[in-house]
Design goal:
The protein is mainly alpha-helical. It has one domain. It has twelve helices and no strands. The chain is globular. About 3% of the residues have low confidence.
Length: 265
């Protein structure tokens, strides 16, 4: 399982598709560093042009973000919560799909069980996401230190909080792509399946919640459902919502495993 996970990480830097994905992520993140994060100190000032961002969030969220000792990381926190899941869906779409189309899953199954392949690919994608998240945080910390070298300790502390929470947020998205990839024959098809499932489940849970207020807990079914609540928390208190993505991940991995075990290659 760990050999397969390590191979997934190596594919990121040894294949054309992986390198293109890494280049796209790097370019987008450079633009984010250059503009919103670099200007973070002014971004939250009410009298600054960037202060218009406050209109997108409620006062509780804004007051919470204003309390951050390192404004650059506060902006990174907001951006990462909404942007990284998109990267996650794109990067983790091809876990088993293309191997199924090429017929190489049968060859792999001669050396490893289906569970080993399924969970090994899942773990490999998590390693990739961990590496990218670390690189994003380290680049932001370097930017902070260029402005004020005395902020090293609070920057590292906040970065640890962001890293743990981002991996929790990305867990169910990665599990979702593991599930749909076990049904698809290409990364594009897996992405389409994920979008369809997301839209249908979102509409269904929204309708049920409106018709039956007692079923409002269904709003927590979709990955990322806790993002708005996370923005209202600070520090390690954010881990109070950790159970939501963990449960979502377990359910989605179970569904993916069932498909993987029953599929005919």
């Amino acid at each position: 399982m760990f050999i397969i996970a390590r191979y997934e990480l190596s594919r990121l830097i040894m294949t054309r598709r992986g390198l293109l994905s890494l280049l796209a992520f790097s370019l987008v993140w450079f633009l984010i560093l250059r503009y919103p994060i670099y200007s973070a100190a002014q971004f939250f000032m009410a009298d600054a042009p960037g202060g218009i961002i406050v209109s997108f969030f409620n006062s509780t969220i804004i007051n919470n973000l204003l309390s951050w000792q390192v404004p650059e990381l506060a902006v990174l926190w907001v951006i990462a919560l909404y942007l990284f899941p998109v990267f996650c869906v794109v990067l983790t779409a091809d876990q088993t799909a293309s191997d199924r189309a090429r017929g190489t899953l049968r060859l792999l199954s001669l050396r490893a069980g289906r569970d080993t392949i399924f969970f090994g690919r899942f773990l490999g994608q998590l390693l990739i996401l961990l590496m990218l998240t670390l690189l994003a945080l380290l680049s932001a910390v370097a930017l902070v230190l260029m402005r004020d070298s005395t902020l090293l300790q609070p920057s590292l502390h906040l970065s640890a909080i962001i890293l743990v929470n981002m991996m929790l947020v990305l867990l169910p998205y990665t599990a979702l792509m593991a599930w749909v990839s076990s049904m698809a024959r290409s990364a594009r098809q897996a992405t389409m399946y994920a979008v369809i499932i997301w839209i249908v489940c979102s509409m269904l849970t929204g309708w049920l919640s409106r018709q039956f207020p007692g079923l409002s807990i269904l709003d927590m079914v979709l990955p990322g459902a806790q993002v708005q609540s996370l923005l209202q928390l600070s520090g390690w208190n954010t881990l109070s919502l950790a159970a939501i993505p963990v449960i979502q991940t377990i359910v989605l991995l179970f569904l993916g495993r069932v498909i993987m075990q029953r599929s005919d290659w």
